[in-house]
Design goal:
Strand 11 and strand 12 form a beta hairpin. Helix 2 packs parallel to helix 6 and helix 18 packs antiparallel against helix 19. The strands form six sheets. The chain has an eight-stranded mixed beta sheet with strand order 5-4-3-6-2-1-7-8, with helices on one face. Strands 9-10-13-11-12 form a five-stranded mixed beta sheet, with helices on both faces. The chain is of the alpha+beta class and about 675 residues long. It folds into three domains: about 190 residues, 2-Layer Sandwich (Heat Shock Protein 90), CATH 3.30.565.10; about 160 residues, Ribosomal Protein S5, domain 2; about 280 residues, formyl-coa transferase, domain 3, CATH 3.30.1540.20.
Length: about 675
């Protein structure tokens, strides 16, 4: 009895369909790409029931002859390749001849098509890959493809489809990517009888971006254009650093009109933003890369979204340089340009476009990349009055044995005493990096009791004064003596303890402190109502995630209300969080819940708490009160805090011996 069997053709077709047709969105991608290859200038995509029950794609392309209409559904039947030499220079969206055969194998299809030279069109009806009916009919020039009941004959695949809302969102996203990659084509997407988007098809990328991605994103975009001597060119748009997003969902890369996923291009863009974005923030972009068809291989993945470049280094440098120049051109006139990492002929290839002044409707719209690199999200406030020059008696102060150092800073970031203590302080003497004041009379070395409480624990609500003071006192009793030297770069706390020098990341330490407190808190987290509610426009998948996690988010302090299709209004956030971080926090939460959708409820809660703690913690570059630094130091040195919620270490220790070796004092 033979062991090896030759599968029937229809079984082989169904297996092959699994590589091409993953979900209804895959069907839309293949059909729209066929319409583009047919020279269509107007394409309409209509779905019902998330696309699983009904998909209709119509175009005004060249159409097909009656004798070709039936052959088109056979495996490896294509009009785009004739021999193996065509694979070396693929210029069309499709080329394998597998899509229609794969789609028809797992669905019911009806095709109507007519060429402009024909008086009549033809129709073909198929079921499970077999032609059921075929004949002549009246129809407009172009092609209309109707696909019904996807996976009706493969229940094992059908049960893995997600909800109608999630599948419809994936269909919409696929259609949007196709429309965004071809500004010369007008594409209309209709879901359950309602038009979701429409691209004008005027061959202007800026109007295409505006109509598909919305006004807010379009207004934050900076134009990108650069080429080199080989004819390689990159155009498109990148977002201003001030308009960065909480995930990479708004990054679109195209190679010769084809949407691709490329770690190379993503890395090039994000490298250009280095030192311009906060951790956890990502730029938005729409970039069109044009190069010789023989310099890129698209025959890598069944979905044709992964490509290989012949000259990866050149592609990386071109994209990096183009994005870096766009960010440089955002600088105000007279600003000193930053040095670029790569020297390339791109900058000399064409004059740099002049950045147009932005309306000063709000801070983020007219904020330059230079000021963002220097100040982050913090707006420059009015100049603070400088301390009066010290008298001759204080010109070279000598620290007496009984003198006590008091450290002053701008208003504390957290709870601070309301009493006016300015009269108790003596004139300032600046000791970098911490501002200090020398009080000549003898005083106790301990800070006032009320100030100690207000700056000692995790600077948040939920603890009584007595509990916090006892906790801090217990920590102090268990610690070896240490000396807080100050801060480096307003990021790292410098501490000397015994024969060691300790550097502490203040953001990571405070983030862990807040996370531990929130995680241990059994009741719902206290929230604060926003004065101005924040509107959020999300993808269908993110909207479904938020709806499914509404109870968890409410328990953790977020108050969200549906506000139309895939839109929400954020009315309250956790009390620890700044209102300016609210939208970014929700984006990050969606990203984490999407990647961890199969985890337990407890892990999902931790994902949200990670984001809340990160947004609520003090940031690198902030001025921090001396007492707050001392509290963080005590928590770290006591061993209570070792790692941030993301697993990064919060401190680094350099021993005396290691320092001596660095300076060659010992061998």
């Amino acid at each position: 009895m033979p062991v090896i069997n030759i599968l029937a053709p229809h079984v082989a077709d169904m297996i092959a369909a699994g590589e091409v047709v993953e979900r209804p969105a895959s069907v839309i991608k293949e059909l729209v790409e066929n319409s583009i290859d047919a020279g269509a200038r107007n394409i309409t995509v209509e779905i019902r029931g998330g696309g699983a029950t009904y998909i209709r794609v119509s175009d005004d392309g060249c159409g097909m002859a009656p004798e070709d209409a039936g052959v088109a559904f056979m495996r490896h039947a294509t009009s785009k390749l004739s021999d193996e030499r065509g694979l070396e220079c693929i210029s069309t969206m499709g080329f394998r001849g597998e899509a229609l055969a794969a789609i028809s194998a797992v669905s019911r299809i009806e095709l109507k098509t007519r060429r402009i030279s024909d008086d009549e069109g033809c129709y073909v009806r198929l079921e499970a890959g077999e032609i059921q009916d075929m004949g002549l009919c009246g129809c407009p020039v172009g092609t209309v493809m109707t696909v019904r009941d996807i996976f009706y004959n493969t229940p094992a695949r059908l049960k893995f489809l997600k909800s109608d809302r999630s599948e419809a969102s994936a269909c919409e996203q696929i259609a949007l990517r196709c429309a965004l990659g071809h500004p010369e084509i007008s594409l209309r997407f209709i879901k359950d009888g309602r038009e979701m988007f429409f691209s004008p098809g005027d061959n202007r990328s800026e109007s295409c971006v505006y109509s598909l991605l919305g006004r807010d994103i379009a207004q934050s975009f900076l134009p990108v254009r650069a080429d080199d001597e080989t004819g390689m060119c990159v155009t498109g748009f990148v977002s201003s650093p001030a308009a960065a997003r909480g995930n990479r969902s708004c990054q679109y890369f195209y190679c010769n009109g084809r949407y691709i996923r490329s770690a190379l291009l993503q890395s090039a863009v994000e490298q250009a933003y280095k030192n311009s974005l906060l951790t956890g923030r990502y730029p938005a972009c729409v970039l069109y890369l044009s190069l010789g068809h023989g310099s890129v291989d698209v025959n890598v993945h069944p979905a044709k979204t992964e490509v290989k470049f012949s000259y990866e280094r050149k592609v990386f440098e071109l994209v990096y340089q183009a994005v870096a120049l766009a960010l440089e051109n955002e600088r105000p006139a007279g600003a000193k340009p930053a040095a670029l990492l790569y020297s390339s002929p791109v900058s000399a290839a064409r004059p740099a476009p002049v950045a147009k002044p932005r309306p000063k409707a709000d801070f983020y719209q007219h904020m330059s990349a230079q000021s963002f690199r220097e100040n982050g999200y913090s707006a420059k406030s009015a100049a603070q009055p400088k301390a009066a020059p010290l008298s001759a008696d204080y010109a070279a102060p000598v620290q007496k044995k009984d003198a006590v150092l008091k450290f002053a800073s701008p208003a504390p970031l957290f709870n601070s005493p309301k009493e006016d203590v300015s009269e108790k302080l003596q004139p300032e003497t600046v000791f970098h990096p911490v501002q200090t004041e020398i009080s000549l009379p003898k005083e106790s070395h301990s800070a006032p009791k009320e100030e100690k409480f207000l700056h000692s624990d995790d600077f948040s609500m939920g603890h009584s004064t007595e509990t916090v003071e006892n906790s801090v006192q217990n920590v102090e009793n268990d610690l070896l003596p240490f000396s807080l030297i100050g801060e480096a770069l307003k990021t790292y706390i410098i501490v000397e303890q015994g024969e060691s020098l300790i550097l502490i990341d203040k953001h990571a330490a405070h983030e862990r402190m807040i996370f531990d407190r929130l995680k241990a808190q059994k009741r719902s987290i206290m929230s604060q109502t926003l004065l101005s509610p924040v509107s959020l426009s999300l993808s269908g998948e993110d909207a479904e995630i938020l709806e499914g996690s509404s109870e968890l988010l409410k328990e953790l302090g977020f108050e969200l209300e549906p506000f139309g299709d895939n839109s929400f209004v954020l009315r309250a956030v956790p009390a620890d969080m700044e209102s300016a971080d609210a939208a970014a926090a929700v984006e990050e939460i969606c990203e984490k819940l999407r990647s961890g959708k199969r985890v337990s409820a407890e892990d999902a809660r931790d994902h949200v708490l990670h984001t809340v703690a990160c947004k609520a913690a003090i940031k690198a570059g902030w001025d921090t009160h001396r007492a707050e630094l001392e509290t963080l130091v005590k928590k770290v040195l006591s061993g209570e805090i070792k790692y941030c919620p993301h697993g990064r270490p919060v401190s680094v220790t350099l021993s005396r011996k290691e320092l001596d070796k660095m300076f060659k004092r010992i061998v």
